[in-house]
Design brief:
220 residues, mainly alpha, 2 domains, globular, 63% helix, Lysozyme
C-alpha cells in the first residue's frame, strides 16, 4: 500500500511539474508576442518620424539653390534630413542655425536666412572635415556639436561613433556644467552628456536612409 501511495504521489508531482512547464511556456510565448508587437510599433513610430514633413519638402528647393552657390548641391537630401531633425521645417529658424552665427538660440526669425546660415555652417563643416579626413557622420555630428568635434574624431581614428560623441559631449559639459545640465532633468536621455545630442548623426542618417539616398555611405 505504501508503494502504491508513493507511486501515486510521484505521478501527482510529475503532473504538477508538467502543468507548471506548460504555464511557463505560455508566459514566455506571451512575453515574446508583446515584445515583437512593441518592437514593431516602435520601428513604425521611428519610421514615420523620419518621413520628411511637408514644410521640409517646401524648403528643399531653397536648400538646393543655396547649396548650388557653394557647389555642394549633391548634399541637398542630407540638408533636408538635417532640417527634418532640427525642426521638421517649422518656425522662423528651421535649420536651427542661429548659434552657428554666434547668436542666441532662435534669434533668426526668417527661414531663408536660417537656410543660408545653415548652408554656411555645413559648408564649413564639410571643408574642415575633408581637411581632417573624417567620415560623413562626423561632419553631420559637427553640425550639432561644432567643428571641435571634427578635431576630436580626427585624433581618434577619423570615424564617428556615438561613444565618441558622448565623450566629447562630457568634456564640454565639464567646462561649463551649469550651462550644459539638460535643464536639470536627470531623466533626459542625454543626461549627463548634455552638450549637444550624441545621437544626432544617427538620427539624421536615419532620415537620409528613409529618403533612400546614396549619400549615406559617402566618406571624406
Amino acid at each position: 500500500m505504501k508503494k502504491k501511495r508513493k507511486l501515486s504521489q510521484k505521478r501527482k508531482e510529475k503532473r504538477r511539474f508538467f502543468h507548471i512547464l506548460i504555464i511557463l511556456a505560455g508566459v514566455f510565448c506571451l512575453i515574446a508576442v508583446l515584445n515583437e508587437e512593441f518592437s514593431f510599433t516602435r520601428k513604425t513610430e521611428l519610421f514615420y518620424k523620419s518621413i520628411p514633413s511637408e514644410n521640409v519638402k517646401k524648403y528643399t528647393p531653397l536648400i538646393h539653390t543655396e547649396l548650388q552657390k557653394v557647389q555642394l548641391e549633391e548634399y541637398t537630401p542630407l540638408l533636408a534630413a538635417v532640417m527634418q531633425q532640427e525642426s521638421r521645417g517649422k518656425g522662423g529658424d528651421p535649420m536651427q542655425s542661429s548659434e552657428s552665427a554666434g547668436l542666441p538660440p532662435n534669434s533668426i526669425n526668417d527661414p531663408e536666412q536660417s537656410i543660408r546660415q545653415g548652408v554656411k555652417h555645413f559648408q564649413r563643416a564639410i571643408q574642415y572635415g575633408q581637411k581632417k579626413n573624417v567620415d560623413l557622420p562626423t561632419i553631420i555630428q559637427a553640425y550639432n556639436m561644432g567643428l571641435g568635434y571634427i578635431d576630436f574624431i580626427a585624433e581618434n581614428g577619423g570615424r564617428h561613433k556615438e561613444d565618441f560623441a558622448k565623450k566629447y559631449s562630457y568634456i564640454q559639459v565639464q567646462k561649463n556644467p551649469q550651462l550644459y545640465n539638460c535643464g536639470g532633468d536627470k531623466n533626459n536621455f542625454r543626461y549627463p552628456y548634455c552638450y549637444g545630442d550624441f545621437t544626432y548623426s544617427t538620427k539624421v542618417m536615419s532620415n537620409l536612409h528613409t529618403l533612400n539616398q546614396p549619400l549615406a555611405g559617402k566618406r571624406h
